[in-house]
Amino acid sequence: MISPDRLTRMFRALAAEVGLPPVRLHDLRHGAATLALAAGVDLRTVQDMLGYSSIVLTADTYTSVLPDVARAAGAEPGLDKHGQATASPQQSRQP
């Protein structure tokens, strides 16, 4: 088993070798969760992915991402600004 400190040193060396800016492994974890939420993955799945014991912790940590996700969902056809399904054009034209 590799120690966390050794893994961190190896990661930093590899990142520097390929010219990446300094980034912590924890930052990559946060980035992955943020991208998952932005891609529409539900909060419960992100919670499981991160191994958080509480959905509240996940929601509190990523509340800055959630408004952007809601706005993006509202821009999708068939969804309102809250991400709720709207009537399709065919349904709204029926008598």
Could you explain how this protein is built, in words?
The longest helix is centred in the first third of the chain and has 14 residues, at 4-17. Helix 2 (25-38) runs antiparallel to helix 3 (43-50) and helix 3 (43-50) crosses helix 4. The model is unreliable at 76-83 and 88-95 (pLDDT under 50). The protein starts with a helix and ends with a helix. It is mainly α and 95 residues long. The protein has helices at 4-17, 25-38, 43-50, 55-61, 66-75, 89-93. It has a domain at 24-84. The protein is built from six helices and no strands.
How many beta-strand segments? 0
Share in helix: 55-70%
The coarse overall form would be globular
- SSE succession: HHHHHH
The computed structural class is: mainly alpha
Can you summarize the main beta sheet? none
Assess the beta-strand content as a share of residues.
under 5%
Report the mean per-residue pLDDT as an integer: 78
Task: Enumerate the spans where pLDDT stays under 50 for 5 or more consecutive residues.
Answer: 76-83, 88-95
Q: Roughly how many Å apart are the termini?
A: 68 Å
* Total DSSP helices: 6
Rg: 19 Å
